[in-house]
């Protein structure tokens, strides 16, 4: 069994997709053992409680430094005896010490086709540039923001009528497909991290891509 902790700050629709996938037997050997939020009012906590998953609230506001906040989170993850950390809308930048302790065992989802559009406001930036394709990426987390190795991407074609809001609406369900898939690969050890390199099905990882038709 692979013990999973999900870190959240907001609505938690990706958490819900992971909970549903586990219930349907689609996380392989993965089991979500805890949900940690830095915000007491995150709706993701309600989703966890409804699924009888242990929750922890660690507010960054109660800690003098990023490092001391991260240390408290690290301790909670050790208490849950976690094998995999899944960031799902967790809105804090992590210290390099924390990231290196979970290197190869921490995933994130980002709403762009990385390495393009790291950071915020990805949908509007894609529209500003006039890109034809957009999407989302599950990737390993490294100390540099949104820069770790990409595992799986869902790609869609931008429509002339798209707005930042419509792109967000179209991309969210794609996130809910690819995140459980990446977690399943990790939990079934099809996706492994060894000496600073990720492997997928025994070969050095190349990003997997799903192309979504635009109706
Ligand atoms: C998603 O858009 C994800 O790409 C980003 O944070 C958002 C989380 O949404 N990292 P939700 O809380 O899972 O609904």
Automatic annotation (TrEMBL):
SUPFAM superfamilies: Formyltransferase. Keywords: Purine biosynthesis, Transferase. It comes from the Bacteria. GO terms for cellular component: cytosol. The active site is at 110 (proton donor). The keyword Transferase applies. GO terms for biological process: 'de novo' IMP biosynthetic process. It is an enzyme of class 2 (transferase). Residues 2-183 form the Formyl transferase N-terminal domain. It catalyses: N(1)-(5-phospho-beta-D-ribosyl)glycinamide + (6R)-10-formyltetrahydrofolate = N(2)-formyl-N(1)-(5-phospho-beta-D-ribosyl)glycinamide + (6S)-5,6,7,8-tetrahydrofolate + H(+). (6R)-10-formyltetrahydrofolate binds at residues 66, 91-94, 108. InterPro entries: Formyl_transf_N, Formyl_transf_N_sf, GART, GART_AS. Pathway: Purine metabolism; IMP biosynthesis via de novo pathway; N(2)-formyl-N(1)-(5-phospho-D-ribosyl)glycinamide from N(1)-(5-phospho-D-ribosyl)glycinamide (10-formyl THF route): step 1/1. GO terms for molecular function: phosphoribosylglycinamide formyltransferase activity. Its EC number is 2.1.2.2. The record marks 146 as: Raises pKa of active site His. N(1)-(5-phospho-beta-D-ribosyl)glycinamide binds at residues 12-14. Belongs to the GART family. Catalyzes the transfer of a formyl group from 10-formyltetrahydrofolate to 5-phospho-ribosyl-glycinamide (GAR), producing 5-phospho-ribosyl-N-formylglycinamide (FGAR) and tetrahydrofolate. This is Phosphoribosylglycinamide formyltransferase. It comes from Acinetobacter sedimenti. The gene is purN.
């Amino acid at each position: 069994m692979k013990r999973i902790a999900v870190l959240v700050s907001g609505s938690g629709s990706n958490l819900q997709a992971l909970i549903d996938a586990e219930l349907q037997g689609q996380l392989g050997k993965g089991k979500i053992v805890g949900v940690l939020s830095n915000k007491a009012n995150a709706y993701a906590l309600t989703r966890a409680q409804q699924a009888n998953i242990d929750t922890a609230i660690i507010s960054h506001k109660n800690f003098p430094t990023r490092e001391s906040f991260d240390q408290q989170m690290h301790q909670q993850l050790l208490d849950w005896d976690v094998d995999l950390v899944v960031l799902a809308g967790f809105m804090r930048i992590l210290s390099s010490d924390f990231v290196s302790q979970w290197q190869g065992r921490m995933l994130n989802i980002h709403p762009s086709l990385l390495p393009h559009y790291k950071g915020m406001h990805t949908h509007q930036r894609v529209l500003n540039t006039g890109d034809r394709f957009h999407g989302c990426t599950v990737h390993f987390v490294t100390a540099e923001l949104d820069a770790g190795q990409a595992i799986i991407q869902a790609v869609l074609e931008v429509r002339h009528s798209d707005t930042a809001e419509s792109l967000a609406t179209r991309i969210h369900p794609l996130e809910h497909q690819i995140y459980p898939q990446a977690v399943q690969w990790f939990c079934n050890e099809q996706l492994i991290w060894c000496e600073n390199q990720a492997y997928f099905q025994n070969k050095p990882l190349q990003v997997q891509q799903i192309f979504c038709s635009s109706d």
